[in-house]
Structures are given as C-alpha cells and as structure tokens.
C-alpha cells in the first residue's frame, strides 16, 4: 500500500464518519473495512521494512494475517449486509440492529486476531491449509452473495421497468434508479477485487 492509498483510507474513514446519508450499520461495516486497509499501510508495510533490517518476522506475519482476515471477513459481512437489506426490505431495520452489527464487527476483529495467533502454535503446513480454507470460504461466500445481489437488483430493475414503460413521463426516473443500482453493485464488486 502506498502513501496515497494510506491517505485515501484516512480520507475514506473521515468521509464515512461525517456522511449522514449512510445507515449506522453500513457505516460501521465500511469503517471496519477501511481501518483494516489502513492498518496494512500504517503497520504492516513499515514492519516489512523493519524486517529487512531485523528479523522480527513473526510479529509482521501475525499483523499481516490480522489485517488480511479482518479485510476478508469485513468484505463478506458487507456483502451479507447488502443482500439482507434487499431481501428483508422493511424488516431489515428491525432484524439488523446496530448492536448486532457492532457485535459482528467486534467478532470479526477478535476472530481475525485468534486466527492470526495460531501462527505461533500450529505447524506451518497445517496453518497454511487452515488459512487457505478460511480465505477460500470468505471469497466464495462474498462472490456468491454479490452474485445474488446483482441478480436481485436486475430482477427489481426489470420489474420497475415494465410499469414504467407504459408511463413515458417517468422513464428518466427508471434510468436514474438503474444507474444507482448498478453503481452500488460495482462498488461492492470493487471490494471483492
């Protein structure tokens, strides 16, 4: 991560905190994601340089794994949150409370720390296999949820367009909604990449 990426993460954290149009739940998940990315730039990369001068490899690897797993779990949680927001509609606010989201974010960081610390106790081969399983599971889950999100948005857009075609004066509204839905989808796909 470069200096520019670090600064952009700081700006993103500030913007997310100051934005009032995002729900509290989404803000919390996005902040967790941005903080894990920022941790890579502020802690892990300087440790790589220090490692080149010293041999404190274990500390760097534990921190690297902490932020990698926090990022993977945060992206998966963001995907799950967005799919729940679409599928639960009006029940979303009732079921996905801020306390539950905060508990999920705390769990993400605690589990990431615990998984990272296994590096100290597990044999290298078992640790690599375990890490690969966890990473693959997160990537497959996030991809599956993003695909479901895309298909659901597409279906909703098609349902909106059918009545709107009969009413030409609202055609621009459909286009704006379609662009907004697609922009939202692209933003989530960027998190996966």
Number of DSSP E strands:
0
Weakly predicted, low-confidence segments: none
Overall pLDDT metric: 80
What Rg, in angstroms, do the CA atoms define? 20 Å
What can be said about the biggest beta sheet? none
- Proportion in β-strands: under 5%
Overall helicity: over 70%
Shape: globular
Order of helices and strands: HHHHHHH
Total number of helices: 7
Please describe what this structure looks like.
It is a single chain. With 193 residues, this protein is mainly alpha-helical. 87% of the residues lie in helices and 0% in strands. The chain has helices at 3-18, 24-53, 57-88, 92-95, 98-117, 124-166, 171-192. It starts with a helix and ends with a helix. The model has no long low-confidence stretch (mean pLDDT 80).
Brief account:
The protein is an all-alpha fold and 193 residues long.
Note the main attributes of this structure.
single chain; 193 residues; mainly alpha; membrane
């Amino acid at each position: 991560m470069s200096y520019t990426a670090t600064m952009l993460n700081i700006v993103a954290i500030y913007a997310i905190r100051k934005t009032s149009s995002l729900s509290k739940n989404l803000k919390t998940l996005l902040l967790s994601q941005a903080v894990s990315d920022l941790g890579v730039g502020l802690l892990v990369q300087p440790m790589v340089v220090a490692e080149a001068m010293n041999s404190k490899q274990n500390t760097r690897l534990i921190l690297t794994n902490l932020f990698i797993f926090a990022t993977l779990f945060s992206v998966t949680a963001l995907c799950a949150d967005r799919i729940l927001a679409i599928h639960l509609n009006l029940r979303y606010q009732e079921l996905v409370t801020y306390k539950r989201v905060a508990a999920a974010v705390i769990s993400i960081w605690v589990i990431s720390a615990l998984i990272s610390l296994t590096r100290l106790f597990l044999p290298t081969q078992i640790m690599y296999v375990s890490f690969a399983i966890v990473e693959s599971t997160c990537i497959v889950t996030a991809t599956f949820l993003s695909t479901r999100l895309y298909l659901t948005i597409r279906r909703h857009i098609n349902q909106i367009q059918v009545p709107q075609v009969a009413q030409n004066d609202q055609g621009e509204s459909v286009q704006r909604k379609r662009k907004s839905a697609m922009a939202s989808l692209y933003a989530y796909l960027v998190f996966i990449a």
